[in-house]
Amino acid sequence: MAILGSGEYTYEIGGDDWGALPEGWSLVEAAGVAVDSTDQVYIFTRGEHPVIVFDSEGNCLRSWGEGDFTNPHGIAAAPDDSMVCVDNGDHTVRVYTPEGKLRLTLGDAGKPSAPMSGDPFNQPTHAVVDPNDGAIYVADGYTNARVHKYDAAGRHLFSWGESGTSPGQFNIVHNIAVDNDGWVYVGDRENQRIQVFSSNGVYETQWVNLARTAGVFVDLRGDQKVYVAELWVAIATNAEGVRLGPRVSIMDRSGKTLARLGEEPPGGSAGRFYAPHGLAVDSKGDIYVAEVANSEFGAKQDPPISGLRTMRKLTKQA
Q1: Average pLDDT of 165-191?
Q2: Which helix (DSSP H) or strand (DSSP E) does residue 84 occupy?
Q3: Which end of the chain is more exposed for a tag (fewer CB within 10 A), N or C?
Q4: For the purposes of burial, counting CB atoms within 10 Å of the CB of 220, is it exposed (0-12), middle (13-18) or buried (19 or more)?
C-alpha cells in the first residue's frame, strides 16, 4: 500500500490490480470504469468478458457484453444506472441496462463516417448522459474532432468542434462529462486541456496546465468536483521527469487544482500509475482508475509485456 495526496485529499492505493476475478479470467486491460447509484463498479475491459461488475469490496458479481464489442473504450453510468458503452473499433455507442440488456444503439457497426468529416462516428471514444434531460453527448474522437448531442431517444440534435488548437477546436476528443447545471467538460487530450461548453455547444473557457487529459468525471454530489485522469507527456529524453503524469487531478468547477495524485513517471510500485485512461468516483469518495497499461507500454516493448496492472482503487482516508 501507498498514500497519495494530503489533507482532505489523502488516498490509500494498493500495488495490485483491484477486484477479485474468477479463476481463468483476465481484464487484459481496463479501458474504462463506471460506478452506479448503489456503488457497484462496472469495468469495461478488453478481455473476453467486456463488462465485469463488482461490489465496492472487489467481489465479482456478474459479467455481460460477451461478443458485443470490437474494442471497448469508454463507459459511463446514466442517472437511471444504464451503462453507456463506446466501442471505437466498430464506431458505435450502446446503452445497456445494469444487467446487460441492450436498450439503444447509436451508429452503424463497422460503418465509420469519413475521416474528419464531422459526421457521426469515426472511432468515438466516450459518451455521457446529461442528468437534467437525458441527452447523450458523444466524444468523437480519434478520427473526428467533434462532439455530438442526441436526445434521450437517440435522435441527433447537433454537433460542434473541428480540428485544431484554438478554443472550440479539438485534437483527440477523448472524454466528456456533464454537471448538474448542464455544463459540458471535454477532455481535449492532445491539446492537454479541458474545454468547457454550454449545453448548446457554446465555448465558455478552458483549463490548461494538464498532461494528456484522458478521462474526465464530474461527481454530481455536493460541490461537484471534477476528477481528471492524465496520461504521461514525457518523451524519451526526459523520461525521468516528474509531475508530467501519469496521475489523477482533482479540480473545482472553476478549474482550480485542488490535488494531484501521483508525481512519478510510469511504474509498477503502489504509488505510481502506468496509464490512467478513465475514472469514476463512488458515494464514499473512493476513486476507481482504469489504466490502458498494455496499450501504452506492454505492446510497445520488444518482446511485448503482458499482464501489467490495469485497474486501481484509491480509497479516501477520513
Answers
A1: 98
A2: strand 83-87
A3: C
A4: middle
Q: Which three cell numbers stand for residue 152?
A: 434521450
Which residue in 28, 34, 106 sits closest to 71, CA to CA? 28
* φ, ψ dihedrals at 298, nearest 5°: -60, -45
Question: Using one digit for the tens of pLDDT, what is the confidence trace for 13-72?
Answer: 988 899 999 999 999 999 999 999 999 999 999 999 999 999 999 999 999 999 999 999
pLDDT score of 74: 98
Specify whether the CB–CB gap between 278 and 31 falls below 8 A: yes
Residues 46 and 52: their CA atoms lie apart, in Å, by 11
From the list 288, 259, 284, 258, the residue with the least C-alpha distance to 276 is 288
Q: By C-alpha distance, which of 288, 273, 219, 305 is closest to 19?
A: 288
> What size, in residues, is the chain?
318
Closest CA to 214 of 300, 299, 125, 295: 125
Q: Which string of b and e fits 154-189 if b means at least 16 CB within 10 Å?
A: eeeeebbbeeeeeebebebbbbbbbbeeebbbbbbb
Residue 235 CA neighbour count, 13 Å, CB half: 1
3-state helix, strand, coil in the chain (%, to 5): 5, 45, 50
Residue 121: asked if its preceding bond is cis (omega within 30°), the reply is: yes
Q: CB–CB of 284/57 below 8 Å?
A: no
Mean pLDDT of 224-231: 98
Question: At a CB cut-off of 8 Å and minimum separation 6, what does 222 contact?
Answer: none
What pLDDT, on the 0 to 100 scale, is given for residue 117? 97
